[in-house]
Amino acid sequence: MLYEINEKALKLESEGKKIIRLNLGDPDLETPPEIVEAAYTAMKAGKTKYSSSYGEKKLREKIAEIHGVKTDNVVITPGSKWGVFATMYLMMQGGGNVIIPTPYWTAYGLIAKTIGAEVKLLRTELENDWKVDPTELEALIDQNTKMIILNNPNNPTSKVMDDETLDAVVEVANRKGVTILSDEVYSAIAFTKTKSILEYDGDCNHILSNGFSKTFTMTGWRVGYIIAEKLLVDKITKLNQITINNVPVFIQDAALKGLELREQIATAIKNEYKARADMASQTLATAGFSFSKPDAPFYVFPKRAGLNSEKFTLDLLDKGVAIAPGSSFGDYREHFRISLTAPRDQIETALQTICEAV
Amino acid sequence: MLYEINEKALKLESEGKKIIRLNLGDPDLETPPEIVEAAYTAMKAGKTKYSSSYGEKKLREKIAEIHGVKTDNVVITPGSKWGVFATMYLMMQGGGNVIIPTPYWTAYGLIAKTIGAEVKLLRTELENDWKVDPTELEALIDQNTKMIILNNPNNPTSKVMDDETLDAVVEVANRKGVTILSDEVYSAIAFTKTKSILEYDGDCNHILSNGFSKTFTMTGWRVGYIIAEKLLVDKITKLNQITINNVPVFIQDAALKGLELREQIATAIKNEYKARADMASQTLATAGFSFSKPDAPFYVFPKRAGLNSEKFTLDLLDKGVAIAPGSSFGDYREHFRISLTAPRDQIETALQTICEAV
Q1: Cβ of A222 and B248 within 8 Å?
Q2: CATH code reported for the domain at A2-25+263-357
């Protein structure tokens, strides 16, 4: 229903109606000008040719340095979604199943469906602070389980997994010999420290998916990366060679500039979204919604007992506010997702409309 | 062996050796500055957000206008290779075979292999002016044939199919109910008029693959398009949604600028490559090589009876010239491909080295 809401929002806007767009994870902020200038400089320097399907060496080296891995373990992808697709496509050829905790970013499920993999959903609940139960996880694993996908911090809950839970999940995966693909695209701007999958040893060759979209407000630039064992990096590179070939070098130069300025850029983004999250949390709590306070940008995922969130979302759209129903992230009919991706005054207005409408 | 040669050339260069690089289809010319400026303007205007997986409406409209089709029949892809991959992936799920005339761009074969499709090669010969024999084509088609791939103008021969041959090929395809995927990425800068697959009617829903790399010297920008029936365009868009999401909007703005200036840009490129092709043809003919005179940029594909082109290519690399052996394009051991993608004086030097070495 995520696409349906977005299409309807666009249609209403094209009819002249004003819509506050809190339905997507696309920040209202601009890409920092230093990043734009780095791209322009690279273009003018002729960095517009075919290039390595691994990605540029300098960018891979910088990423390797930040994550404490070898350059050989890094491959650049046109967005983190491509990284997730390529990894699943290559690891799940010949079938098998993938375990995904819910609520979840539905792209994981759509990718699995497209490549013919079975999805096993593992429910988590607000009432249990969105914790994955390691015993339930273990019970879901069978001999055809090829992968567990974690999204940490999580979209739509903005919850960071606590160390104890993540330790237990990794222990189960290692013992059962199942690879974890950890999508940590929100981690560099999380409000609390997020433990990375790369901090664990073991023979299961866990995989990190990451991107520049969220940390550097570069959603439309399409650049991300996978960190994995060299064998998988080489396979993704071979897939790149027959599909996208390479991420434009001037975009990789722009991404590198982002990494060089990451303290300053990430801090500014974190501060802005923390302020928005605090404001939203206060208003929603006062109005009696249940939710876990965001540990990261960009989302709040409130609940109201008895709510039909699909109807609620559609009604709200007629009142000029676009959000996403909980059903877009699994079986969460009483929840809805607010993206705090608009200027604060617009978020404030939207929150009032939401509180009045419920 | 194409990649091996390129890696070895890069290695020799890193050791300080000077190599004239005529082994890839990556032009030495720069992307026209108007195109670079259009990208920069778009970036500064904030066109850096998530966008439609169909591509930008304005770009699709312009492409539709140029090719005389509807906007609904156009989908933008990150390079024409992605278009070929997506089309083959979607049309050949569940197996089947694809017929490809040789010599051919090996990416087609690698894509087929990756997605688990069978490849049936249809040999053409210099001695028969590289013509596809419609009778041989018909004999290759069976009930599992899902696609014929044409590359017109052809890489590596730079041959444009004559109308009579193309008419006959399309007639066979239509009668047998097989879809043609026509990769026409060199057609806008061909020295002779190239008849497009879009000029044919029929129920087989033939498909055009095209890109901006060659016409506008935008190889590293990764932007191309597929023109097809709406059903396939919608399917490619759905695949885009779960993989690359969208081509950056600022890159699409740059591509649109290219199309607006296409007369001027294509003419300049055509003239430059025509001059290079004439020069190469004269030198190679004098030295007694057999070849068909290029109808299009960027390649010449000469033959010398008894030549072992893999050995010849490797020896030549030690003499400072990188070309591609005929075996990289099918069973063409006596041929080699020269890419005329270097300044004229370098091409001249390289041709002398080639003629002396043989």
Answers
A1: yes
A2: 3.90.1150.10
